[in-house]
Amino acid sequence: MRTGDDPYVQFGTSLLHIRIPPTCDFDASSAYPPRFRSSFLASDAVSSSSMQARASKEHHCERAERQAAPLPCLGGERRSYAGVSEPFLPHAHEHYVIGSVREGSRLLKINGQEILISAGDAIAFNPGDVHGCEQASAEPFAYDSVTVTPALLEGMHLRNVARADEEAAEEALTLFGQLDAMEDDETLEGVLAIASLLDDGDGVQGSADEGLAATVAAHLEAHMADTASIQALADDAGVSIHALIRAHQKRFSITPLQHLKSMRVERAVRLLADGATPAEVAAETGFADQAHLTRAFKERTGFTPAAYRKMVASKGKLA
What we know:
The protein has eleven helices and twelve strands. By secondary structure, the chain is of the alpha+beta class. It folds into three domains: 8-62, no CATH class; 65-178, Sandwich (Jelly Rolls); 206-315, Orthogonal Bundle (Arc Repressor Mutant, subunit A). Strands 3-4-11-6-9-12 form a six-stranded antiparallel β-sheet. Strands 5-10-7-8 form a four-stranded antiparallel β-sheet, with no helix packed on it. Strands 1-2 form a two-stranded antiparallel sheet. The protein starts with 7 loop residues before the first strand and ends with a helix. The relative contact order is 0.08.
């Protein structure tokens, strides 16, 4: 380095004054007696390593992404984290939290317990659950979550973790992957369905709930083309949204709006086989437009409505 303008060199906590010709290229280590040079070089190496580690940590912090947006249908918000490496200190919320781990592993400390969570796991916090977490792998942590007002879950107590191979975890991963494209009712229903799977209470009781689910299913089939609202269905049945979804899922393994969409697709299959156009089918079965019909139809049959119609027409028989 060129040091003609700065004749001071620091060694330890002392400053040495060394007179150097203005044009001299100077190696600072050569200014010290031989017995000090190895210490100087070793110290310089340690300092360089520390700087690199700090720079790496700062780089990870800079790459970390945190996003939050209101989600009025849940009385809460949606949150997304990626590239996180710093620990979260113990804290609690007044609301519920339901989330899904996308990447990395963390040691979750909750209510005095320690649980290792990894990619694919679902996590849930009840109001008042004291929790924090810290890295358990080199890979930065990423997860998605929603917060839910306690009024929607009616005092439910959720399990804190569902492993990646459990239905609740699979449903959570699917929901967060599709959240951007979901309507409010679909989001509400999906989150409450996951909550029901995580509920560690006694679940649905007795034939009254069986009857409720059957009545709602019959209503959906009879009014398939009508606009459906999960709140309106619950009001008509005289129960809460949570009770409605829990009963329906217990009986049919899907939520009411998922059931309705399945019914609409089944009706669409028959109408297309009879020669109706996709646009006509969309209108008759209650889909908002042909694009919504196409997406739902392909998700359940593997075909687009137009391709299916052409195929069955060419073979001259119904599916």
